[in-house]
Request: fold
Amino acid sequence: MAVEIEMRARFTKEAHDQLVARLKADGEDLGRDDKHIYFYVFPDRLLKVTDNTAAGTAKITLKGSKIGQGTAFAETEFAIAPADVPAAVKVFNALGFETTMHEAFNFRHNFRFDGVEIAVKWSEAWGYHAEFEILLDDGAADADRVEAAAKITNVAAELGVSLMTEQELADFTAAFEAAEKERKQEAPLIR
Amino acid sequence: MSTTPATANLIDLAAQGRLPLHQCMDHTTIAWIAGNQPDLPPAPRRTLRHTSQSLIKRAGVPPAWMADPRLYTSLHGVRHGMRTAALAAVLAEANGLDDADTATAIVAAAIHDCQRRHDKDDQGHGDRAAVWLAANADTVWGHFDITATPFRIVQAAAAVRLHDVPYTAFSTDDRSDHARAEHIVDVVKAADALDRYRLPKLKWWPDVRRVRQLAFDQFRSLAFDLVVISEKAQLAGASSPEAVRFALAEKGLV
Reply:
């Protein structure tokens, strides 16, 4: 099981355009990576079925904590065929997880800048945002994790991006989950 | 679900006069549209009022509101409704309409085609949608988180009813309805016309002679970009509402 050190930022369209221009000029462009993701949100875990629509691959991922519960995410994942995505979702829904599920399309472009992978994205829930990530081995020492977080913080600062705090992330995801519940209700219609 | 044959594209079918009843965008057609970008001046940069932004973000109506669920993702489906609602907001604000009039135009624009039975020349679909709107007013206005009043329902229904009636074909009753909600009717008809860049023949694209809207030409490039961005996004895998809301964000409208 690998460990991701992940930090996030949300920003305006103008800030997005400036960031992308800087990354295209000074970073490594890793290409477009749009995804359709089915999220199953549990109190202390996150299960995802991801259809990598731009790459033509798919995977199932279990993260050992959810957004807003720290920057280190223990992660187990395995590839599946893109054609199997609907079946995977059907299985998890049939197991009783449907009420915890929401889905979203992520418009995503990946870059690497000074050793940090940066996914610049847009989704309905998050708007324009970016994920800064360093992948560590499972046995990485605490010092390595702290160093990775510091590296991400420095890179974000160099790019002029304000990273979200853990509290901001927790508040944001809680508000989104509450809005999702409300959204699923619509009044009947007269034909 | 499209009734377009899987191997066909709308460009070829339109050229052959064989467009099916239900028409869905395809990669060939959107590439053709993008490749025929008219030489248009950029639209004036406009930040919509907060109330307008909030309403156009809600313009993705539920599939259950469509008379035929196959139209939800077709050329007259929810993406067209959402883009028309956004363009109605832009035109309404450019015309100096207040929040209430702008909201009425947005609501009417969002649902104006919801009672179509197919994507071809479906006579009377405006009439049917107006009746449907009156019967479902509380639900529709509630979807936008605003309150329906009899005056606003009548105005929106007039815009919906007249959206598919050319000005030159207005009857006495049509002129009377138009007079009751002139600015709103004109904005909705123009917004609907601006979204014609999605259609697979150049001669069907926006034509200023069919509208009464001085600001029409200013927003052609915005309308074109909204079509190209949202249709490409939908073909890339986004849902229809996601695709249009992405286009709205890309153009700085929300």
